[in-house]
Amino acid sequence: MRIITILVAVLAALSSSADAAQSYDGYEAFYIAQPGAVFGVPIRQNGDPTEQNAGVVYSEPGEPGIFTKLQGKLERNTLNIELWGNRLAVNGKTYRFADATTFPGEHVSEIFPQSANVFIAARTDTHPLLLCVEGHGSGSGEAASRYQQISLLVNPLARNPTFLHLPSLLSSCRAVVATKDGKLAFPKNSYVFDDAQASRVGLLVSYYTFENQRFVPVPALKQLRLRFTHPEIPFQFSIQDKN
Fold it and tell me: Is the pLDDT of residue 75 over 90?
């Protein structure tokens, strides 16, 4: 009887641990844990600009605002990056955020370069060289804490790279994944409401890709349903199920 009691306690503890492993206190860890996650740590924002993956903040006479100079090295490729509030330059070629192909319903705005993150990912069998920028604009309240501008540059060293503006709600460059069949996918998040449609109690994570010059769903990636620990507070949550 005592052995049975101990076994029941052990199984209960293991079950509890498994449930706890599905709980998160933020989206960074959640997105990194997803299969096929593309981006790891961002290029550092401070340090010696000649050092790999290091950057400093500058201002320039005659130019309004400030910008960040960054340098990233992947394999034999060096990316010299300038990040302004309204544009990105890679090895001297400029990409204005307003010119990116924008996900339907999203709006492009300027970001704060000093607090933005820039990610790079090396070429693999499933995707080309990638660069992604995420940063906050001048919004306040929910707009500042739950939305950020996300721009993805696919194959930045190519003659005509693809430049995309991705969905912004509770998302990140870290949310970009590569599927087994070579697609780059990213989430379009939407709130889940309670039965009375009065409170936001969760998030539905639906994946899209960009192909044939348009954004389309990715059927191979199942939707994820997240449940907030407390209604209306989206930063503590657990994975409820997969649709």
Answer: no
The count of C-alpha atoms lying within 13 angstroms of the C-alpha of 136, restricted to the half-sphere facing its C-beta, is 13
Give the DSSP per-residue string, the chain: -HHHHHHHHHHHHHHHHHHHHTEESSHHHHHHTSTTB---SPPPSSS-TTSTTEEEEEE-TTS-SEEEEEEEEETTEEEEEEE-SSEEEETTEEEEGGGSEEPTT-------GGG-EEEEE---SS---EEEEEE--S--THHHHHB-EEEEEESTTSSS-EEEE---BT--GGG-EE-TTS-EEEEEEEEEE-TTS-SEEEEEEEEEEEETTEEEE-TTSPPEEEEEEETTEEEEEEEEEE-
| Burial class for 126, CB neighbours closer than 10 Å (0-12, 13-18, 19+) | middle
pLDDT of 33 over the 70 cut: yes
Backbone angles phi, psi at 72, to 5 degrees: -125, 145
Structure tokens at 142: 């929910």
Tokens of 27: 């989206």
So what's the pLDDT on residue 65? 80
Interval 110-126: pLDDT, tens: 999 988 999 999 999 98
Q: What separation, in Å, do the N-terminal and C-terminal C-alpha atoms of the chain show?
A: 41
| CA distances (Å), origin 139, targets 27, 43, 135, 172 | 20, 24, 11, 17
Q: Where are the domains of the chain?
A: 24-242
- Whether residue 177 has pLDDT greater than 50: yes
- pLDDT tens digits, 140-157: 788 889 999 999 999 999
Strand partners, 209: 185, 216
